[in-house]
Amino acid sequence: xxxxxxxxxxxxxxxxxxxPGIGDMRGKLLTQQINQVPLNDFDEIVRxxxxxxxxxxxxxxxHPPLYVDFGSHLHLGENFYCNVDPIFIDINTITFGDxxxxxxxxxxxxxxxxxxxxxxxxxxxxxxxxxVGDNVWICAQATILPGVTIGKNSxxxxxxxxxxxxxxxxxxxxxxARVIRELxxxxxxxxxxxxxxxxxxxxxx
Length: 205
Known about the structure:
It is a single chain. By secondary structure, the protein is of the alpha/beta class. The chain has four helices and 19 strands. Strand 18 (170-173) and strand 19 form a beta hairpin. Helix 1 runs antiparallel to helix 2.
């Protein structure tokens, strides 16, 4: 499964399987527990999420409710934030760099199925890893498909369906997602000016 080759979900060890093709019992139960913690108990949510994922930096938060297949195949970089209602179909690994921001209801889907109907109906499936670079912002309701790598500093627009790799320092959007424009010096100057204006206005209060 982790090698990206065809496998049968029913071959998973009994202690891992919830139902065929649905994932890992430990991850599912931890996710259910996280989703039932009061939202003002931030420390307990973070503690349980630390148990759920395979690895993480010092600062991370996934806003419940969240949904996983395994959870242990998630790897979170430093200063990771994910807004409400994400779906992580982590049949294979989903790896995030540092300073990644994810909007509400974003889906990460490592799982895929054969395009031949007879083989698909046999239950065989596969999973390919997803990798997200440093300083990436993925906006609301985007969909990230199996095998995709998103380059550092890039932005995925709201509702985009990302079917192939995204270069560094670009804005992508649409279905299927395509490069809309490069991100560079003009963006830096625009937002630096607005940042300076914000701090100047704040000093007046």
